[in-house]
TrEMBL record:
Domain called CN hydrolase: residue spans: 1-241
Top-level taxon in the UniProt lineage: Bacteria
Alphabetical list of Gene3D superfamilies matching this protein: Carbon-nitrogen hydrolase
Pfam families xref list: CN_hydrolase
Organism: Alsobacter sp. KACC 23698
Protein name (record): Carbon-nitrogen hydrolase family protein
GO molecular function, one term: hydrolase activity, acting on carbon-nitrogen (but not peptide) bonds, in linear amides
UniProt keyword terms in alphabetical order: Hydrolase
Length: 260
């Protein structure tokens, strides 16, 4: 069993701020073994509109790089994402820091392209694929925000033995679709699905992020969600429960008769 924490952290978060001190204190008291943050958690959300701004992107990437040591102090293991440069463009890199060691987990492959979330014009992956990794005693896969909307990837992670699918998000205030996608990901993968989100807007400009991190069991039963006043949720992820779900309906069902 692994104690895993999801959060809703404010847009514009910076290490050293009062908000950072408060959330670090709460996490120290809760002592989770694994923390899942929201997507690219530091600074104000940048890919709101086009055109792509390379100078601003560099500042944002540098802020995340400088924040890694402080992030690593929050739990034994942390899963998050950050903007990194390759050539003149950004990749959105999911990573883990476990016992102080940084590992790349996944590059976001699927991007929205609309006002507030012009990510398709800001990001391109450098690494392909959706793979699982051993983190905090669990087999873990990552889906970054919009990737949760494509259950074939959750199913593939389940077939790799995932106990947990971590979903860092930067999504708005309409939650019905996100909850449905999270529940469906749990159903098709036989894995726990835990997601964190940013909340609010640092400068009052759109988009306004909706918070409400959530946790689903492999059965798609809701284990809880965050809210204003309860910005952190800790749940127990049980390997045996996720392993047993792999032989339950519909996870065990084969698609061998489906033509490519």
């Amino acid at each position: 069993m692994t104690r895993v924490c999801v959060v809703e952290w404010p847009d514009g978060l910076q290490v050293g701020s009062k908000a950072w001190a408060a959330l670090a204190g709460d996490l120290a008291a809760a002592a989770p073994e694994l923390l899942i943050t929201n997507e690219m958690p530091f600074g104000s959300w940048l890919p709101r509109q086009l055109p792509y701004d390379r100078a601003a992107a560099r500042t944002w990437a540098d802020m995340h790089e400088a924040s890694l040591p402080a992030l690593a102090c929050l739990a034994q293991a942390v899963i998050s994402s950050r903007p990194i440069f390759h050539g003149d463009v950004l990749a959105n890199e999911a990573f883990a820091i476990e016992d102080g060691v940084y590992r790349t987990l996944h590059h976001k492959q699927i991007f929205p392209a609309e006002e507030g979330w012009q990510e398709d014009g800001w990001f391109a992956p450098r690494r392909p694929g959706f793979d699982t990794h051993a983190i905090a005693g669990l087999t873990v896969g990552v889906l970054l925000c919009t990737e949760l909307m494509f259950p074939e990837h959750a199913r593939a992670l389940g077939r790799q033995g995932a106990h947990l699918i971590a979903v860092p998000r930067a999504s708005g205030r309409a939650m019905t679709t996100w909850r449905t996608a999270g529940a469906m990901a749990a159903i098709v993968s036989g894995a726990y699905v835990l997601s964190s989100n940013r909340v609010g807007s640092a400068d009052g400009q759109p988009p306004v992020f909706g918070g409400q991190g959530f946790a689903f069991a492999p059965s798609a039963v809701t284990l809880g969600e965050t809210s204003r006043g309860m910005e952190m949720l800790v749940v127990d992820v049980e390997r045996d429960v996720a392993d047993a779900a792999k032989s339950a309906y519909p996870v065990y069902v084969s698609d061998r008769h489906v033509r490519p």
